[in-house]
Amino acid sequence: MFNQAIAQTHFGEILxxxxxxxxxxxxxxxxxxxxxxxxxxxxxxxxxxxxxxxVTAFFFAGDQxxxxxxxxxxxxxxxxxxxxxxxxSRTRWHEALIRSCRDQGCLLPxxxxxxxxxxxxxxxxxxxxxxxxxxxxxxxxxxRLPKAGPEYxxxxxxxxxxxxxxxxxxxxxxxxxxxxxQLRERRIIAQPARDMLIVQNRALLEAIxxxxxx
Amino acid sequence: MFNQAIAQTHFGEILxxxxxxxxxxxxxxxxxxxxxxxxxxxxxxxxxxxxxxxVTAFFFAGDQxxxxxxxxxxxxxxxxxxxxxxxxSRTRWHEALIRSCRDQGCLLPxxxxxxxxxxxxxxxxxxxxxxxxxxxxxxxxxxRLPKAGPEYxxxxxxxxxxxxxxxxxxxxxxxxxxxxxQLRERRIIAQPARDMLIVQNRALLEAIxxxxxx
DNA sequence: CGGCCCATTGACAGGCATCAAGTCCGGTGG
DNA sequence: CCACCGGACTTGATGCCTGTCAATGGGCCG
Lengths: 214, 214
What we know:
Two copies of one chain form a homodimer. The first copy, chain A, is α+β, with helices and mostly antiparallel strands. Chain A has six helices and twelve strands. Chain A has helices at residues 90-104, 111-125, 130-141, 162-169, 173-185, 202-210, and strands at 7-8, 14-18, 23-25, 33-39, 42-47, 53-59, 64-65, 76-79, 83-89, 155-157, 189-190, 196-199. In chain A, a hairpin with a 5-residue loop joins strand 1 (7-8) and strand 2. The radius of gyration of chain A is 18 Å and the shape is globular. At the A-B interface, helix 1 and helix 2 of A face helix 1 and helix 2 of B. The structure holds a DNA duplex.
């Protein structure tokens, strides 16, 4: 991966690139570096002994992942899209933590950017009906999806495969496909292309996500 | 609750008691205090807009919950059994964090005692088959359950109701009941009383939990 | 153009939710 | 000491949601 362009930010940080489905770090490896996403989308993966694959989180630009709250990474991080990131050594990250703790009297806000998505995923997967889970996932990520462009108001890029969504929601790709079809037929979302998403009826989307509507 | 006995530990900390099903703190309240459990079992509760109740974690003696990684508590904490705990103010907890960070070059280990159970719950609930989930839950807590007594080797106190277990595993009490019956009939566990548990075949329990066996 | 992976659709079976009784157990009060 | 009561647990019958299997379609890349 080092044969690709490695840019230098104006803070002297090294901006690293990664291709889609490239691994940033493996579950179980010692957590030497914090990965700060600058651009693109990443996913957290956990494999069970029987080969069951779970996507435990999606991460977006600005998130810091691989925090050394544990001596080893608790999940494998892979690029969903091509992305860029910046590395922070464990010790440098610790110093930033102490500074923010002392100066602002609070923890580094970034400490929750990793565990918060996982916490919310637990709540989402804990719902029974698949449509509720799908809508809850969409609500939780739609505001962080990149916009398709200035000329396409309300249209988001949606680069997640249905396989990833299924592994996130603890179901199958077929069921995801049927759920999305239902949302399209009810004019709650639209998909002008496979990797495009428009939320047409956000109120109803959130109502289904909260369980108020079926 | 202050009319109950409040003991003083030899460190000058105040040991607080709580009765079963008493609330320690509410989701959304500002996280002023960290609760360190000294004895007993607690549960984390999250309610959805439609009234759906989820148990997002069980906590045991030694765990610290309500950490100020977020300005507000992210779940409601209730006592499962009668329990005791010690309060740490947010600032005092921060100081301990900075000290451990500087002296030992690592974060306070307790920072993971709260998020780790939630992370593991996500993995458990993400499994499809109910029996797998039940066994995974048992494996994850059996070593932290209090022993029934020196004269009962291998017997644990098991004070969790099937309702709590069902809300933890995203299923119903009836299904939990049938799952436990199956585990009893297969001699994987035994329950001499409703609130007692013996793991008779731990290897098989773990095999089912991992998905290797059905 | 061919191959591959992903998405789609249908048929079918099965696991689990739901509903409804009935039982057990601990606690309370007479 | 015993009757009562409420909550939790148990068990069975039933139906639906969703997993599974199989086949097809479609887009992307070499």
